[in-house]
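F.,

This is the one I mentioned.
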């Protein structure tokens, strides 16, 4: 019996350390990547305005820096897209805004008398400059609501269902506000906005959810209203000879992109905006041939995550030249304690369980949904919630929501989630080509090892990102379909419980080790 037990243990050991082979089809290009990003909503407005410079710059380094230290370890995650939240003016309204959380209110450059004040949104503008100084390539400006002076109810959230909260006939004025805001910011800050996203999560009603209050700015919109705004905005951008591209969608849930959800003219958006009908926007000036959606509420269970992303890819593929972006996510689901601490988005987690949960999603959004860009929701959070990359607190608690909590100063903490995102964002830059890693079982690999690969033709680099959600180290041999690497070597950068995107010793391409519960980026140089 003892010998049988020993034999069984040896068998388990050999299975755990058996070498696998993965082929990297370097000549089979699947897509061009547009970059990885995050937004400044909402906490950057207070941190950027009030916090000490030393702390602000340390936070900016974590988000934007592409530098490495003397040992070759990255100082930050090198985001390549920064999302600027263009406010509607709920801060100026104060308590009359009926936005219950003042940290979710925002300033508006446009005054009630029609003049513009470019000194507003000071904290967010500080982070714009910090991003620019650290070499962020792309900038996107987005709104949650039209300016309160233009809305139906004078508020930054809606009181009518399924209707854009905008006064009749003022779509041209809203479009003009967007154009003038972009121009004003570009002149003041000395940088360009590559993209503008005029409507956010139009499928939700954004009506009072606590008496007559709401917790943030927001507005619903029908597909027809989005089309009308896109057309007006396109015309104004063209008339001003601007290069900023309109990106639409920002669907609150990705199935609104590809199926009829509730007959409210806020779904089937891929076909509505890029199909054969009169509302096709792909030929309008300054419109990017891209549809964006948010990965909320479709990540669990895993079979739903996989299927819904395959459906996105299949529907996008039917529209020649169309691309998909995953443009907002934080954890709102309830996958349970076995997946993440606390079992849901509530309670912050700075460790690897949450990082791996999100890294799996990034992989599936990129590899299955064919997302050319992946963007996190809010870069900073002061809440005891899994919605940030960097966490703010007073050093005595895990977060708070009182108005003055860490408003002027506080402590900040990086997270494993930040660094896991960095395994993609720092290395997979805009313009890189994703290449095929065939024969991966989508469902089985979701709790094991998931691989994506990217080719940097300009710099002759190969990037391979491995997410190992399993409990065992895995040994791999990578076979390249075309080309050879210098010395047949790859440099690993490891995010794990004991490592924050740390550079490790060189590994030969035929003796790769991917540690358990880790995200690893391998960087090689083509000969």
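My design for it:
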């Amino acid at each position: 019996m003892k010998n049988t037990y020993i034999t069984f243990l040896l068998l388990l050991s050999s299975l755990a350390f058996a070498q696998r082979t993965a082929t990297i089809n370097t000549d089979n290009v699947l897509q061009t990547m547009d970059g990885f990003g995050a937004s400044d909503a909402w906490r950057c407005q207070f941190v950027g305005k009030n916090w000490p410079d030393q702390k602000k710059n340390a936070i900016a380094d974590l988000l934007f820096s592409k530098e490495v230290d003397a040992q070759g370890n990255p100082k930050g995650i090198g985001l390549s897209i920064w999302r600027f939240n263009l406010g509607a003016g709920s801060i100026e309204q104060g308590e009359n805004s009926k936005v219950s959380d003042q940290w979710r209110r925002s300033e508006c450059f446009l005054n009630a008398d029609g003049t513009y004040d470019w000194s507003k949104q000071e904290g967010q503008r500080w982070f714009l400059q910090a991003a620019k100084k650290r070499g962020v390539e792309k900038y996107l400006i987005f709104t949650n609501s039209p300016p309160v002076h233009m809305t139906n109810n004078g508020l930054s959230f809606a009181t009518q269902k399924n209707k854009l909260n905008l006064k009749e006939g003022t779509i041209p004025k809203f479009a003009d506000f967007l154009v003038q805001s972009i121009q004003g910011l570009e002149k003041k800050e000395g940088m360009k906005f590559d993209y503008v996203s005029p409507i956010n999560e139009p499928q939700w009603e954004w009506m009072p959810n606590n008496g007559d209050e709401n917790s943030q700015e927001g507005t619903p919109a029908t597909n027809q209203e989005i089309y009308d705004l896109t057309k007006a905005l396109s015309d104004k951008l063209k008339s001003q000879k601007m290069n900023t591209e309109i990106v639409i969608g920002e669907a609150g849930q990705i199935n609104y992109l590809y199926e009829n959800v509730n007959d409210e003219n806020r779904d089937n958006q891929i076909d509505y905006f890029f199909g054969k009908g009169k509302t096709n926007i792909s030929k309008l000036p300054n419109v990017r041939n891209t549809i964006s959606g948010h990965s909320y509420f479709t990540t669990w269970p895993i079979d739903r995550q996989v299927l819904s992303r395959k459906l996105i890819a299949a529907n996008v593929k039917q529209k020649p030249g169309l691309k998909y972006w995953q443009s907002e996510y934080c954890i709102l689901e309830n996958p349970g304690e076995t997946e993440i601490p606390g079992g849901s988005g509530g309670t912050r987690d700075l460790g690897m369980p949450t990082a791996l949960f999100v890294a799996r999603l990034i992989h599936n959004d990129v590899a299955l949904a064919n997302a050319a860009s992946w963007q996190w929701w809010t870069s900073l959070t002061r809440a005891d919630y899994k919605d940030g990359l960097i966490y703010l607190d007073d050093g005595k608690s895990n977060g708070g929501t009182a108005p003055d909590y860490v408003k002027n100063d506080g402590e900040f903490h990086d997270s494993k989630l930040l660094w896991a995102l960095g395994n993609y964002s720092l290395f997979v830059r805009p313009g890189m080509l994703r290449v095929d890693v065939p024969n991966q079982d989508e469902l089985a690999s979701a709790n094991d090892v998931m691989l994506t690969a990217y080719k940097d033709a300009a710099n002759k680099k190969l990037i391979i990102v491995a997410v190992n959600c399993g409990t065992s180290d895995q040994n791999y041999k990578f076979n390249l379909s075309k080309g050879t690497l210098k010395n047949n070597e790859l440099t690993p950068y490891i995010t794990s419980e004991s490592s924050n995107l740390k550079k490790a010793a060189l590994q030969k391409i035929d003796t790769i080790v991917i540690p358990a519960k880790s995200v690893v980026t391998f960087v090689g140089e083509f000969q």
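The chain has a mean pLDDT of 96.

Talk soon.
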